[in-house]
Amino acid sequence: MNSIQKKILVLVIAVLFIMVAIWTSLTYYNQKMQNQYNEILERYLIMNEVTSESQQIVAALNNYLIEPSESNLKELNLNKNQILRTKERVSKFRNVDNDYALTNYENLIDSLVEITTQSVLARTGQQTEDYLSAFSEASRISKYISEMTLTLIDMELKTYDRFYRSIIDSSGELRMLGIWLLLLITFVVLLLAHWFAKRITRPVNQLTQAAHELSLGRFDLKIEVDSNDEISFLAKMFDKMRININNYLSEIKQKAQLEHELQESKLLLQESQLRSLQSQINPHFLYNTLDILSKKAYLEGSEETSDLLVSVAGLLRYNLNNLENSAALFEEVQVLKKYIDIQHARFTDRLHFHLEVDESCLDIKIPRLTLQPIVENAVIYAVEPDENGGSIYFRVKNEVDYVRIEIEDNGPGMTEEKVKQILHMNSKEVGGHFTGIGINNVVKRLSLFYSCNDVFEIESKVGIGTKVILKIPKNNEG
Amino acid sequence: MRKLVIINLSFVSVVLFYFTVVSGSKVFKSDWELPRATEQVNTKHRLVLITQELETPFWDKVANAAMEQAKKESASLEVWGSYGNNREDFLKKIEIAIYSQVDGIIVQGLDTDEFKALTKIKAASYGIPIITVANDVPMGDSLRKSYVGSDQYLAGKMIGEQLLADMGTAGEVAIMIDKQYQYFQKQRMEGIKDALKEYPNIQIVVIEMQDAREQVMATTKDVLNQNPNIDAFIAINADILAAMVQEIESRSQIERYYIYSCDDDYESISLLNQGKINGIIEQSPEEMGTKSVELILKWLNNEKVPLDLNGYLTDIQVVKASNVR
After folding, report:
1. Does residue B3 lie in a domain region?
2. Tens of pLDDT along A409-437?
3. ipTM for the complex?
4. Which of A62, A153, A397, B277 has the most Cβ atoms closer than 10 angstroms to its Cβ?
5. Span A348-473: which CATH code?
């Protein structure tokens, strides 16, 4: 996980690392310079030591010559050893420039030691002349040593002149480097801090923006945060929440729609039932009465009237059944025939009804009272107004995956607007219907029954006629 | 806009980075190279050339030639000495050289007891070979290994012959000599005298003097006063010459006199160029330098033992005023 904490830590570590690197290198540099200084200074000090030690030798020699005691001799030897040791150290200072002078210097020291020894020997041998001259020589050599020391130091100074200057120069350079470094680091750290801050705050801003959008109710915008820290996690969760809310919302909408549709179908059903109930004013009484009338007519020799009454009674019976049940197409067709019989009695020759039924399709289920209202409509609009009557064609055809039912008339037809109006209008004021059920009701029931909208079609042309087509799906169990 | 800002920022950071790197490299690359340390003691022969007259044209030539020769033979040579005939300093330098146990000393001979004592006793006791150069000190006095320089007797003789050629075989000649009578001066004088002794008409006056300037002038004045007929001056020692010429000039026309110098130092040459003196002896300082180093190294390498005790003579010639003009 790449957390904000980690980011901050990285920034701090980076800055710290730079600081440490600079500190280390500067310390190293300083140490180096210090060491060089010390080394040079040490050379001077050691050379100076040689001078003072040579003087000490001379002093010790003098003491010994005056008073040749054991302790003085010891002192003298001590000094001699000391100066020889120092000589060893001096010999390490040899370089190209001072090679000659340093050799001379060392030899001078040797000469001093030698002369001292000679002097001591002469003193032991009581050769006064010799030891005194050796002493004076020793003191001269000592003097030369101090001079040579100065010469050497002088030479050192000349040799190191360039070196000192470069040290002075480079300390100037160091100051410049410090300034540049300060500027660079300030700049870089500012940039880094800005960048880090941005990396941390930008996702937060994006999230805030997204939250704002959500609060405005826009659930369809994807929440995108281009980072990989906690904020991104938060954003992902937020996005998930948004998606969930969005899903819930659409679900609720769908449910509402479904409920609405359900309500509608219920209403339609109620309406149909109401209509059918209205038309059932004491239906059994009517039915029985019609039966009696039919028998009476038959007995009186009016067979035609008797048949008509039977048809009316059959139609009534069918209507009295529960509308919610579906019926076979066969039953519907029978009812239709009865209805047509009745209408024939009314219009006699003016109504020409042609029936073409594919018998194989008659067992398909369709809702009750769907065909009769359509044919009734055709009778009302195509046959009734015309003095010469009209023709109505009823066809049932077997298609591949549906049964095609056509009801065609040769009436005045309708305009397209009218067709639309019929299909979408849910008016209830349709007068003159036998069952009181309008086309509109049929359309809706069909579409609810089959849960699809293309079951019902109207083809109509003004002056030619109207054709209603029902496409009943075969695989429907309803 | 954003792009512009980014470009600017990166430019600034690149510039800063560049200067920081440049500055850093300057700091950390600055060469603190100390002179290379030489671990071993140098096994080269350490020679020293010591003269009384540092930084005179003559000795500069000797020193340069010697240096060159030493470099050629990869020996190390240093030139020490005193300025302006400071004898005390000169002797001290010799003493230091001896105590420093150099491998060989090439020294301008000085005919004094101190010098002899140093070379004879001290140097010998340390086993340091000494070659005299330009000015000799007799072998018996100095225990020098050899001498490299002009034949001073010949130089005197040549000056004498030149005088004869210029002046003729009659006249008064004043020979001006340093009171200290160094060995080379004596030789020069003998040469002059030998050249002139066959001509009885030439009278020689030998005048001794201190080489301090006032002394020289005073002495010259005396000579001119006492010998009004004097025709020629010969300065055995070039140190005398300048003061002498000045004094003569102040008295009368200098062209009257024949004046000669046995040295070719700076003053002699300039006087010769001015036509104030008639001739000088020109020596070969380069040859002296080269030869002396060569010889002492041969001695040290045991190539040529023993060296010619009488010395190795270098070329001399007389330069006349007429030649210069």
Report:
1. no
2. 888 888 888 787 777 765 444 444 555 56
3. 0.75
4. B277
5. 3.30.565.10
